[in-house]
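quick q for whoever's on today - can somebody do inverse folding on this one?? i tried earlier but teh output was garbage lol. tokens:
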């Protein structure tokens, strides 16, 4: 049995699961209360039933209240809207990274 590490969903710090941290029942973890609260983490006195779930959580955050989404999901959606693949976006980004001030300077 080893120690598992979680990544703070806000500041991306990693910390061991045996230490002090804040977690939401939806599976998000934060290194401290400040990070948790910045993402809408709170106690649910009367329970919170996420859409499609069949049990009430005693905590909730922006993610399980559908007020925020993981960057991966947003990226996937943005690519779909832009009709680009991830590879095509990388090509565009590489061009941008080479000439970041192209539009301002011209
Ligand atoms: Zn943090
Ligand atoms: Zn949550």
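ok took a stab at it. sequence:
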């Amino acid at each position: 049995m080893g120690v598992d590490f979680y990544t703070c969903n806000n500041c991306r710090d990693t910390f061991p699961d045996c230490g002090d941290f804040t977690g939401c029942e939806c599976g998000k973890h934060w290194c401290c209360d400040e990070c948790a609260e910045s993402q809408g983490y709170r106690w649910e006195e009367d329970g919170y039933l996420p859409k499609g779930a069949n049990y009430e959580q005693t905590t909730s955050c922006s993610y399980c209240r559908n007020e925020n989404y993981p960057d991966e999901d947003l990226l996937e959606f943005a690519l779909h809207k832009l009709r680009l693949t991830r590879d095509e976006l990388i090509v565009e980004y590489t061009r941008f990274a080479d000439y970041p001030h192209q539009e301002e300077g011209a």
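fwiw The chain has a mean pLDDT of 92. also The chain has two domains: 5-60, 71-105. so keep that in mind when u check it
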